[in-house]
Amino acid sequence: MTRALNKLTAAQVKNATPGKYSDGGGLWLHRREDGGAQWFLRVTVHGRRREMGLGSLTYVSLKEAREQADKWRRLARAGKDPIKERERERRLAAREDHTLASIAEEAFEARKAELKGDGKAGRWFSPLELHVLPKIGRVPIEEIDQRDIKNTLAPIWHTKADTARKAMNRLGIVMRHAAAMGLDVDIQATEKAKALLGKSRHKSKHVPALPWQDVPAFYATLDEGSVTHLALRLLILTAARSSEIRFIRLSEIEGDTWVIPAERMKAAKEHRVPLSGEAQDIIERAKPFERDGFLFPSIRKGVISDATMSRLMERRGMEARPHGFRSSFRTWCAEATEVPREVAETALAHVVGGSVERAYRRTDYLDQRRALMEQWAEHVTRVSHTIVIAGLSKNAE
């Protein structure tokens, strides 16, 4: 019986000419015309013949081929398909490489081109990195279900609703990425987790804003000529986001227009900001502080932080924050001007209208916005403002 199973010798295998040679029990060696050789095994499972490769002779010796053949023949006798079983074993072995953390990194890399600045700021990945991966990052993604996700996000679902929503959104993207890779994942797991978590009890709060009537009095106190004061003045005059102001470069100023590149915009689209006479004066006054092309550098390196401007207002006992001046401007547009909605929204770099409407409306209303920003500057710089705001005097800082 042993001889029937082990027909070949090492010498015969080494010196075999092109053709097929049986070692017995379904194990064959196929020597090709090009000199290469391959082991394969033939077994019968449920009346159906199956043929599976066992590897190249270059890497698999006669002894190793017989050991593999014994293993797969035993499975075939037990009624199991050796080819399917091998695939199952490979998937199990590969699971260590298919953890949630590794697939999340792959998904992030795949999406970088769609993200502002290639996602270098970390805002896309941070909800996962801070609240998900520390808990289930090492779990094979194919094993993750709605209960895992629910238990992971439950602690922040009602207290940090926006962060939890972003983390859930990113998880959904990662699960779909894994499915595209051919992994056996439940792409509905995040939706099921939402059902288990229920509606968030968290009530969103708007960023506190200074009433537009009170902006001139605050603006007048920013008269020290420091980087922080000048940055806040330009932020108010342009109704821009704080990140757009903080990272402004002199190279982006083209005469009386500030052109913000797409990679620095929230909507990932270039935005032109008309500069009023007052805004241009602020830029001239800030030029002596310029470093590495940045108009508002920090004391040490890089640019001033968002906290720098916020803390100035906080020290003065104000609830309002820098981002709130965008709301101040928009409310002023609605209550004190007759500017069309589309012009006001474009001034804030908001997307206006549906995709079809935008396809036909190919204007950014630059001329109309230029007049609007001059009007806003006139309001902001009024010196005859009579409203007295507690805590807004220069001595309050």
Automatic annotation (TrEMBL):
The Tyr recombinase domain, residue ranges: 205-373
Keywords: DNA integration, DNA recombination, DNA-binding
InterPro entries: DNA_brk_join_enz, Integrase-like_cat_sf, Integrase_catalytic, Integrase_DNA-bd_sf, Integrase_DNA_bind_dom, Integrase_recombinase_N, Phage_int_M, Phage_Integrase
GO biological process terms on file: DNA integration; DNA recombination
Gene Ontology terms for molecular function: DNA binding
Top-level lineage group: Bacteria
PROSITE patterns: TYR_RECOMBINASE
PANTHER family given in the database record: PROPHAGE INTEGRASE, PROPHAGE INTEGRASE INTS-RELATED
Family, as annotated: Belongs to the 'phage' integrase family.
Protein name, per record: DUF4102 domain-containing protein
